[in-house]
Amino acid sequence: GLFSQAAFYTTVNHMKDLPLHGGKEVAFVGRSNAGKSSAINTLANHTRLAFTSKTPGRTQHLNYFSLGNNNYLVDLPGYGYAKVPPDVQAHWEHLLSEYLQTREELCGLVVIMDARHPLTERDQGMLGWFAPTGKPIHILLTKSDKLSRQQSTQTLRDVKEFLAEHFPQCTAQLFSSLKKAGMDEAEAMIAGWFSA
Ligand code: GDP
């Protein structure tokens, strides 16, 4: 699979330190606790991969994983964590917005949202930063195992309806790291971005 060779590559805390790999990257972002690390680990079939990103001192960094073929997955810092000091928050906002708006190697963004409360204000802010690039965005509505089939179907429909109106380049799907559901769809989407 696309992620089967995933291995930690580097960690970055300043725009000037972004790697000059000349390849393509896909970034994962989401509200803290939405399930981003679990989703990355599930896709990579690896329980410790995104663990690196939770190492104290690295949580506010951009963590790069090499996927082979000069393709990279970038685990972006989670947002909305309450106890972040204002200076750290300001640095984070700057780094993330600069990265999303200017990184040429970035060919698509995966946004992780908890299926029980998708499209928070911060989530929409993130979409708003990246949407003007015109590059594709794919939303994983994760923890879908916590919803009934009917609830998850309705959630997906509502999210798609919102996206069609406000962020037409955005796609969305249900995902569950617990049940390993939605992996093929997510992988196919990301593989398509790398090969475009
Ligand atoms: P992150 O902060 O976005 O990286 O979130 P984590 O991946 O660390 O997940 C936060 C919490 O949600 C953890 O307790 C996970 O076990 C749980 N979690 C993550 N994904 C799922 C899922 O698909 N289903 C369920 N039921 N729990 C999940």
Automatic annotation (TrEMBL):
Protein's UniProt keywords contain Transmembrane helix: no
Domain named EngB-type G: residues: 22-196
CDD domains, per the entry: YihA_EngB (cd01876)
Domain of life: Bacteria
GO molecular function, one term: GTP binding
Coiled-coil positions: none
Family designation: Belongs to the TRAFAC class TrmE-Era-EngA-EngB-Septin-like GTPase superfamily. EngB GTPase family.
HAMAP family: GTPase_EngB
Descriptive protein name: Probable GTP-binding protein EngB
Taxonomic lineage of the native organism: Bacteria, Pseudomonadati, Pseudomonadota, Betaproteobacteria, Nitrosomonadales
